[in-house]
Write a structure and sequence with these properties.
By secondary structure, this protein is mostly helical. Helix content is 52%, strand content 9%. The chain has a two-stranded parallel sheet. The longest helix is centred in the C-terminal third of the chain and has 17 residues. The protein starts with a helix and ends with a helix. Belongs to the short-chain dehydrogenases/reductases (SDR) family. GO terms for molecular function: oxidoreductase activity. This is RDH11 dehydrogenase.
């Protein structure tokens, strides 16, 4: 939803192979179908990713590196605000993990 969906729509309009990295399979698949219908681009894909989980970030990055020939653009758009204090299963503060640590790790794993 929001900025991420708009960016994905714009990339798909340019006929780019576009991967939506979403926490929710249901919401992500709905966005994929909407973008495909709006653009006629069948190369819009869904991959699950929760940036608050470093294990999820590592699994996502590994899959992208194995499945994709190259990555030209990475848009880190995940973010949380205003949630009550919470600790992730990995022992990290949830907002900091989601907004900073996860995207930082993802970017570094996908470099090169």
């Amino acid at each position: 939803a929001g900025i991420g969906k708009c960016v994905a729509l714009d990339l798909a309009c340019r006929n780019a192979r576009t991967i939506l990295a979403c926490r929710s399979r249901e919401r992500g698949q709905a966005a994929v179908e909407e973008i495909r219908a709006a653009t006629g681009n069948p190369a819009v894909l869904l991959r699950l990713l929760d940036t608050s989980s470093l294990a999820s970030v590592r699994a996502f990055a590994q899959a992208v590196l194995q499945e994709e020939k190259r990555l030209d653009v990475l848009v880190n758009n995940a973010g949380l605000t205003g949630l009550p204090f919470a600790i992730t299963p990995e022992g990290l503060e949830q907002t900091f993990a989601t907004n900073h640590l996860g995207p930082f790790l993802l970017t570094n794993l996908l470099l090169g």
